[in-house]
């Protein structure tokens, strides 16, 4: 009975996550209705809260897949409660991604759940655990872009449309960065089980620096241009324009002042 009760508590959704969902819902409503005196503040809170929700779901997907693959320890660690404070590195999974959104409008990959890989048998299972996180970002991007590619934007206020477009940009960048086959990122985790032992040992020391290496490359104008060209191509295929993502980011950065160009949008 005690074991059953403890297992139930290990999977109970955290009040912290419920609170973040509530902030997302309230600020989304304020953005839609224009209730907020400063629409940029509502957009900022809505996008930030929704982004944190997606980060929690990203980590939950890793943990849940690991649970069904044989690692029962994820429950004891609190990963199944969707509580961001339970992650191994809350700074890397929550704080830094939010800071990068504020500074550069880019979706920083998460990756802070510790999976006990020795409990899991089968290379396909290891690959699926790594893929589960970024696939969640892909799903989130599909949800955010659905009104655009379904041509269901009639009656949708421009501020809410811009906010969705910017949120979709974050999800697409997070998914693309995560799927890069770079040590330390989920993309490498997908292919790692299929590499020889010797290659894995040689690559292992570089894993902590993989993300730093990627962002160093993104500072190079040529690489940055190619990366965002790919992002723009993906978003345009989903019927989201540069104008919409630009205005979404401008609204999000409300402290920079209002943008008359975006305010004139229908």
From TrEMBL:
PANTHER family: ZINC METALLOPROTEASE MJ0611-RELATED, ZINC METALLOPROTEASE YWHC-RELATED
Record-annotated membrane-spanning stretches: 12-32, 41-61, 90-115, 127-150, 162-185, 206-228
GO biological process terms on file: proteolysis
Keywords: Cell membrane, Hydrolase, Membrane, Metal-binding, Metalloprotease, Protease, Transmembrane, Transmembrane helix, Zinc
Family membership noted in the UniProt record: Belongs to the peptidase M50B family.
Required cofactor names: Zn(2+)
Membrane-related topology note: Multi-pass membrane protein
GO terms under cellular component: plasma membrane
Native source organism of the sequence: Streptomyces violarus
Cellular compartments annotated: Cell membrane
Domain of life: Bacteria
Entry-linked InterPro entries: Metallopeptidase_M50B, Rip2-like
Protein's name according to its UniProt entry: Zn-dependent protease
Sample GO molecular function, one term: metal ion binding
């Amino acid at each position: 009975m005690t074991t059953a009760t403890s297992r139930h508590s290990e999977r109970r959704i955290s009040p912290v996550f419920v609170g973040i969902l509530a902030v997302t819902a309230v600020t989304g409503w304020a953005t839609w209705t224009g209730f907020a005196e400063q629409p940029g503040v509502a957009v900022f809170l809505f996008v930030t809260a929704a982004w944190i929700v997606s980060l929690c779901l990203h980590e939950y997907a890793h943990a849940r897949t690991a649970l069904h693959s044989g690692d029962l320890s994820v429950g004891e660690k609190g990963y199944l409660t969707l509580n961001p404070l339970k992650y191994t590195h809350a700074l890397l999974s929550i704080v830094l991604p939010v800071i990068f959104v504020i500074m550069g409008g880019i979706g920083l990959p998460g990756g802070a759940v510790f999976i006990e890989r020795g409990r899991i048998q089968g290379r396909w299972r290891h690959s699926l655990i790594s893929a589960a996180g970024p696939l969640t970002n892909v799903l989130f991007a599909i949800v955010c872009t659905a009104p655009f590619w379904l041509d269901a934007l009639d009656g949708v206020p421009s501020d809410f449309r811009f906010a969705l477009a910017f949120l979709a940009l974050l999800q697409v960048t997070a998914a693309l960065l995560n799927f890069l086959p770079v040590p330390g990122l989920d993309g490498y985790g997908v292919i790692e089980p299929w590499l020889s032992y010797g290659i894995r040992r040689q690559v292992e020391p570089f894993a902590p620096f993989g993300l730093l290496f990627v962002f160093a490359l993104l500072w190079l104008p040529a690489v940055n241009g190619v990366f965002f060209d790919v992002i723009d191509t993906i978003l345009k295929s989903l019927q989201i324009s540069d104008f919409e993502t630009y205005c979404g980011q401008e609204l999000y950065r409300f402290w920079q002042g209002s943008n008359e160009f975006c305010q004139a949008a229908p």
